[in-house]
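[Q] Does anyone have a clean structure-token version of this?
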Amino acid sequence: MKKIFTGLIVLVPIMLVMAQPPRGDWEKDDRKSMKTMNIWKLTEELELTEEQAEKFFPKFRTHQDKMENIRKEGKDALKPIFETLKDGKDVSDKDLAAALKKFEKFEREKVDNQIAFVKSLEGTLTNTQIAKLMLAPHKMRREAKDNIRKHKKTQNRRYKRDRW
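[A] Here you go.
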């Protein structure tokens, strides 16, 4: 009986840990839901017609994929410096100059891509919709920050209320 009881005590926690999905899967799900939420908010903000949506979203997805690739390349390019700093070593002038050059290249590529994307929408969206599209990321970030502030305030009030 003791062996069975001991076996259960050891096996149950292991089974619970094994049943949890890996952390990477949660991050992928979060990223997918964020992308879906962004598309929904963008559609609402731009007030797209069906014809406009049919033309806009393929261009938008292509643009998003390009931007994601640029971000990944930029992150990979700066990885050597990150590793050097992580190891507690000093970054040499040569390495810093090379990293700065790569960083500048990727940032310019991002800006050029953004401008090309906006210009490609001239026949698809109205000027007002293009302007709203250009301002949408800033508006979404501001709304997210405001929501976080509100959430923190409610948590603090709840915490203070429950204290003696």
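[Q] Thanks! Anything notable?
[A] The chain has a mean pLDDT of 82.
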